[in-house]
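Worked example 2:
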Amino acid sequence: MHEKNLTVVTEFFLLGFQGSQCFRISSFCLLLLVYSGTMCGNLLIITLVSTSKNLQTPMYFFIYQLSISDILLTTNIVPIMLHILLNDGATISFVGCITQFCFFGGMEASECFLLTVMSYDRYVAICNPLRYTSIMTNAYCMNLTIASWLLGFAITLLDTISISVLLFCGSNVIDHFFCDILPLLEIACSDTFIVQIESFVLSVPAIFIPTSIIIFSYTNIVLAILRIPSNIGREKAFSTCSSHLTVVSIFYWTIFSVYVVPTKQQTLTISKVLSLLYTVFTPMINPIIYSFRNKDIKKAAFNVFHKFAA
């Protein structure tokens, strides 16, 4: 009888970052600037890789895919977040919340796989350079990319289905700036033990296996670089993977901090700030890292700008 009298939640209220109006307006301006920079930077990468013949290689094809993922991820999160800041909170329907989580999780999982594929590409290029072109063919790269996207969304879809059948009947307030799995489980009325176990099991192919592959790849890359006799050769080999290693380090550090090994002292505010890093700031940083530390992209950008200026 008690369960029948409970009011089922049909919409949620996202709190976002609470603060004074001055703080919220300042945060709105900063995030709008970051979002604009993210869109411009990643669209530039996509344009350069699509139009420049010098960038028609597997490495830049994967960077192209990563830029698409970053654009979709931030577009899924930031517009609603900006609305939250302007209105000191925002209402989102149950279906809208579940849909946002599905796209967010799909993008994050797909990015994990894409970063793993990129580390494998660098492994083949440095550890087996003579067979690189025969291994990393266009068809093989396309298959790896499709598999990354499909696996990412397939894994997230299982989590999404499990969350969508949970009963939400108490508080509808989510103390976050988007619909993430942990805040949703906190306010669910029904038992979430099975969902938590399922999420942990799914994190093995989504996070732990890709991390292991990346560590294995870079261990072999470092050993191969150390065997190169000349300093110039070592520097050239390391420069081809340093940008990717930087992106991987930032991405996985925040992912592990929020979902895998959160500390007991980690407050909701710290958790939201860490989430802000990998959902908003990392997608902006990625094209900057690849642009400033890559001569081919800088050369392609110079040629494009010079062509339009002429």
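The two ends are 76 Å apart (CA to CA). The longest helix spans residues 94-127.
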